[in-house]
Every structure is written in C-alpha cells, then in structure tokens.
Amino acid sequence: MKTHAAMKKNLIILAIMATLLGSCGAGSARGRNIPAEPETEILFRTTMGNIRIKLYNETPEHRFNFVRLVDEHYFDSLLFHRVIRDFMIQAGDPESKGADKGTRLGAGGPGYTLPAEFIYPQYYHKRGALSAARQADQVNPDRRSSGSQFYIVTGRKYRESELRDMEKQLQQQEEQSIFNTLCMENRELIVRMQNDNDDEGLMKLQKQLNEKLDSIVSLKGKFHFTDEQVKTYEKVGGTPFLDNQYTVFGEVIEGMEIVDKIQKVRTDENDRPEDDVMIISTEVVK
After folding, report:
1. pTM for the complete prediction?
2. What does the H/E/C string look like for 159-225?
3. Half-sphere exposure of 251 (CA within 13 A, CB side)
4. Spatial separation of the C-alpha atoms in residues 262 and 132, rounded to whole Å
5. pLDDT 10s digits, 153-164
6. pLDDT tens by residue, 215-229
7. Rounded CA gap, 13 and 16, in Å?
C-alpha cells in the first residue's frame, strides 16, 4: 500500500491533466421548498414488483428534488438501465424511456446537478441505501449529484479486516481528491509555470499545496468506519467503498426482495438488463 508521501509525490502533474479536461456543465436545482411532512415515502411500481423508500430530512436538496420529479412523473416508464449483482441497481436516465435494445444508457439527466449532502457517518452505503449517482471526481471535484439518476445498494458482506484495509484506501482517495481540488484552484498559475518550464516554481507550489493538504486533513480528521458501520457491513452488507463520496439520501423500507430480484437479472456488456426492467409509475405515499 502506498504511503502518504508516495501518494502525493506526483499528484500535481495528475491534477494538471485532470483540470485540463474541464468539468461538466451544471446548473442548480430550482426551488428550495421542503415538503412539510416529517418523513417522506415514495412508492415505485416496477415491472418486477413494488419498492417503497423513505427520504431523509437531513438531505433537503435531494429530498425536495426527488419529490418534485416524482410529482412530475419524471421517472415513469424509465428503466433500471445499470444493474450489477452484489453492488447496486441504477435508474433515472430520461434517455432510457423507450430506448432500443442494446442502446448504451447512463448519460442523461434533467440538465442540472445537486450539491453534495454527505451526512456521514449517520447515513452510509448499507444494503438498501438510496444514493445519488454522479460523474467522476476528475470532472466533478465537488461531487455534485446527478439531478435524476439514483441507485439502490445491494452490495455484499465484509469482514472487519477488509473494512480496516478499506479505511486506509479511502483516506488516500480523499487526500488525493482534496489535493486535486487545490490544484484546480491554482490551475492558471500551474499552467503558466509549465509553459515557462519553471520547475523550481512548480516544486515550491507543490510543497505549499502539500502543507495545505496536511492542514485540511488534520482539521477534518482521518476517514474511519464507526462500530455501527462495521457491524452492519459484517451482518447486513453494503458497498462501504462508496461512503462519504456519494450522497445517501434515503433507504428502502419495503420491497428489498424486489431489488434482489432485479439485481439477479441477466445483463449485457454494458450492465443493462437484457429484458427491460421498467419503473411503471411513482407516487408520494406519505
């Protein structure tokens, strides 16, 4: 496993490459009114059965947005377009509506993204968690969520030793993400130094950014799984490697057996079910 120092050694060059790719266009969701109900529940009627979920009050942006889309019947007739056994089932791509067999899906959305709402470690990727899909860190360093695509976690069970090793890996990933963000903030200076072949200036800047990274990490604290998480991942399962990286904004309260049926269907090389699994309709039921 790479050490902290080794991980940072050439990150500035990687960050420059990442920033040159640019970031995806993203507006913000319109409206900030939050439903008055203390707890909102949504019923998904699918071609394989019904799934009932509840939305967390502590993630208001995602909660309001999801309810609005349900009220607009946005999800009706969309497919579970990405299904991976022992991982998750994903839906919410508007381009999946009526899509021909074999069409590659997963890039569609409503034209806006949502700010990340990480309520960690209270909410995490246990089996049954409802989470927002998003684009990768390289083009989405703020980890903004897709405006409509979501996934339901199935996952698997993990031993405590696996989770402790994963803690270290996730901490390294978090440090790299922070460092890349720092580099993006200094993108113009970095590019100018590159063009001027100012290696001394780049090394000096890298040292400054490393020191700033250490300060941020010290303030935030090291990533870790709580005792509750370890127990849940051991006994119930989930996808712990996604924790604190994707917004968890709800969970399945009825119909997990339907989620399991969906995750077991045959899929093609793009993880799309060979026989379409459709969301027939959705409804706010509480």
Report:
1. 0.79
2. CHHHHHHHHHHHHHHHHHHHHHHHHHHCHHHHHHHHHCCCHHHHHHHHHHHHHHHHHHHHHHCCCCC
3. 13
4. 18
5. 999 999 999 999
6. 888 887 788 899 999
7. 5
